[in-house]
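Researcher: I'd like a structural prediction for the single chain below. Treat it as a standalone chain; there are no partners to consider.
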Amino acid sequence: MIINRVWSMPSSQTFTIKPIRELLTRYIKNPEKWIDPFAGYNSPAYWSNDLDESAKTLYHTEASVFCRHLLYQLKMVESFEWGLFDPPYSARQITEHYKAVGHQADMVDTSNTFYSRVLVYMAKLIKSGGYLIHCGWNSNGYGKSNGFEIVEILLVAHGGQHHDTIVTVEIKI
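Model: Treating it as a single chain, here is the predicted structure.
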C-alpha cells in the first residue's frame, strides 16, 4: 500500500486541490468508464450526478437514486472501471448542501446510512479490478468485507484547524 502526505490549500471543490487532481490524473484513463454520484463542478467522471442543478452533470438527483437508476433501469451492473466518492464529509455539510439546493435534510440523510446507501450500489456498478476513490476525513474506504482492498492513501494536510482531506484508492477484488 502506498501512503503519501502532502500539504495544500483547502477547497470545497475537492478535485481542484492540486495533489488530489494529480492523483486523479494518474488514474484517469477513460472518463466514460467513471461514475460520480456527488460530482459537484469539477469531476472528471462522465457518468455524473449532483443535487445542484447548476452543476454540469448528467443527472440532478439524490445520489442513491442516481446509482439505483444506473443499476436497475440502465442495467449497468459492473460497467464502470472507476468510481469517485466525494460526498459531503459531515452531517453539517450534508444539511448545508441540501439547504443550498432547496432540499431539507432528514435524520436518514445525516446518519451513516447516507454513505452506505450509495456505496452498496456503487460496489455493484464497479467491475472486478476496478477502482473506488473515496475522499473524506477518514481512510475507511469501502473495505475488504465489501470486496475492496486499499492500494493507496493520500493525506492532504491543510494547516491550521482544517481537517486533512484523506483520499483512499481501493481496488475491487
